[in-house]
Amino acid sequence: MSTAQPKGQKATGRLTGTITRNDQPTAFNGTDHYIYKDNDELEIYSGEETPGGAWKSISLNLDPNITAGTHKLGSFSSFRSAMVVPGNTDVLLNYSGTLDIKPDHANRHYTGSISLSAKNNGSDTYQIEATFDLKE
User: Got the DSSP string for 4-20?
Assistant: First the structure.
């Protein structure tokens, strides 16, 4: 990887979906997955290299004891934050959306889906839709 390796343990499985910029979708098919969990946070990361050596990635920061169900993104939620790197120079801000998750904390196995919207530092809007099934 040309970027710093995410913290956590390498995971297996899939995180796939689309990152749509101004109604122009591009596929996201994560190839490198990591899960990090301690007493303070659960982080799920997936990235893929794009032609030209850039990286697209989706990272979710969750409460370490998140329960099954739908969670709305927010500071006081079990779905604390999300960061999406769309594979270009855009910096995404003002995220909103939901996470539907079925965690199996004992076996470090997480399945679910995300639906996010964000804006870049200009006027472009992004919609991120993805599903995941990852196991440490």
Answer: PPPSSEEEEEEEEEEEE
Please answer whether residues 130 and 28 qualify as being in contact, where contact means their C-beta atoms are separated by less than 8 angstroms. yes
Residue 77 class from Cβ within 10 Å (0-12 exposed, 13-18 middle, 19+ buried)? Answer: middle
The per-residue pLDDT for range 34-77, each reduced to its tens digit, is 999 999 999 999 999 888 778 899 999 999 999 999 999 987 89
The residue ranges of DSSP E strands in the chain, in sequence order, are 9-21, 24-29, 32-37, 42-49, 55-62, 69-72, 79-86, 93-104, 109-119, 125-135
Question: Model-level pTM?
Answer: 0.90
Which amino acid, 46?
A: S
Spatial CA neighbour of 67 closest among 97, 110, 103: 103
pLDDT tens digit string along 105-134?
Answer: 999 999 999 999 999 988 899 999 999 999
Measured from the Cβ of residue 3, the count of other Cβ atoms closer than 10 Å reads: 12
CA gap 76, 53 in Å, rounded = 36
